[in-house]
């Protein structure tokens, strides 16, 4: 179960261009965030399988927690420099710099009902761009 949990969230982070994340740090972030924001495997799968699904506030806050601990978001805001840096480290994305900048510009201003919802919506926006998806 831990492997499946790790691999699903690792795919999420890869999708938004954080390929070179420190695995120990990433695993620690997931475990720490799971204490305050426990989520189910079904919710994890649903995120990747059903783009129109509704998600709990707990799931959204778990995502926010992990991505802030990994320094992709700071105070509920996408850290553009960190996102670009991680994108450039990804061989599948490092030749798409213009696409990355356009996607950031489009997605960074997405707003939700609260910080957790905002980060969730930004990630969905980033994830929805084919040029940033790692297949």
From TrEMBL:
<keyword id="KW-0732">Signal</keyword>
<feature type="signal peptide">
    <location>
        <begin position="1"/>
        <end position="21"/>
    </location>
</feature>
<dbReference type="GO" id="GO:0007608">
    <property type="term" value="P:sensory perception of smell"/>
</dbReference>
<protein>
    <submittedName>
        <fullName>General odorant-binding protein 56h-like</fullName>
    </submittedName>
</protein>
<comment type="similarity">
    <text>Belongs to the PBP/GOBP family.</text>
</comment>
<dbReference type="InterPro" id="IPR036728">
    <property type="entry name" value="PBP_GOBP_sf"/>
</dbReference>
<dbReference type="InterPro" id="IPR006170">
    <property type="entry name" value="PBP/GOBP"/>
</dbReference>
<dbReference type="Pfam" id="PF01395">
    <property type="entry name" value="PBP_GOBP"/>
</dbReference>
<keyword id="KW-0964">Secreted</keyword>
<dbReference type="GO" id="GO:0005549">
    <property type="term" value="F:odorant binding"/>
</dbReference>
<dbReference type="GO" id="GO:0005615">
    <property type="term" value="C:extracellular space"/>
</dbReference>
